Amino acid sequence: PALDLYDMIQTDANGRGVVNILVADRLLQSPKLYTTFLLWMLSELFEQLPEVGDLDKPKLLFFFDEAHLLFDAAPKPLLDKIEQVVRIIRSKGVGVFFVTQNPIDIPDVILSQMGNRVQHALRAFTPRDQKAVRAAATTFRPNPKINTEQAITELGVGEALVSFLDERGMPGVVERALIVPPRSQIGPITPEQRRQLITSSLVYGYYEKPLERESAYEMLAKQVERAAAEATALEAQKEAEARAAKEAERRARAQAKQEVMRAKQLERWERERQRQAEREARERQKVVGDVFEAFAKSAARSLGGSTGALVRGILGGLSSRQSRKRRESAFRESRQRG
């Protein structure tokens, strides 16, 4: 709701508190919504207000009229939450009063958290009424001087049974008291009076300005849209990654195939080179063999014609060498004799 809860804690120029009236006549027609609003308001106050402990006077008091409308259609989880908030919000300096014609309209778990009680007269003409009277009487701390159940049915106009917390925070015994007569108008105000009160309010002009806030539906719609966009982007990313992986796999297979073909080509080239080298080696060996064969044949032919001359030359050389040795020997002998 477009409501600043701190506006309810404001004071006037003299430092006195201000009575704020929530116009909830249409809201009362939807009890569940009314209960939800109550829970939201109390929860927000508990979260925003600081801890103050046990104050002499509370900062803020709530009076919920026709309180039975809050609990008629409220589910148990919601009642448990209201009970929890009502119990712990006291430490924030906030008090809560539920106003109803019959105490049995308020669940026991919540009624047990109410420390201050004001009970006006109840008439018991039927068994159900008598049950309500007994139930109301049991909510008060007993007073030996008062028959609580009987006193409830005997209360006159302006009378009430009251029980308030004492200085120690304990409920006082029930007492019979007179209520100060109201000093305000009895009955609903007119539209003109309501308008005058609104225009004289300290916050007049603040809530009259229209504010195009982002609704919960719009926020949820944006979240759904954002989630859908993220899901679409994630799906597109997965598809892109799948395509990239498939393309990488295809390229890897193609590269592997090329590597295999290149290896086979290199192997063929190596075999061809070896065969070429073997052919060249065989050709060189053949050429060398042919040269030696031709040389051998030529040498054999030359040797056949010059063999006799060579033998003669060798023998002649040997003969002349022997003759020279004989001459030298004879010359030495003659010199010795002379």
UniProtKB/TrEMBL annotation:
Residues 328-338 have a biased composition (Basic and acidic residues). It holds the Pfam family HerA_C. Residues 1-321 form the Helicase HerA-like C-terminal domain. Keywords: ATP-binding, Coiled coil, Nucleotide-binding. Residues 217-286 form a coiled coil. GO terms for molecular function: ATP binding. The keyword Transport does not apply. Residues 314-338 are annotated as: Disordered. This is ATP-binding protein. It comes from Candidatus Thermofonsia Clade 3 bacterium.
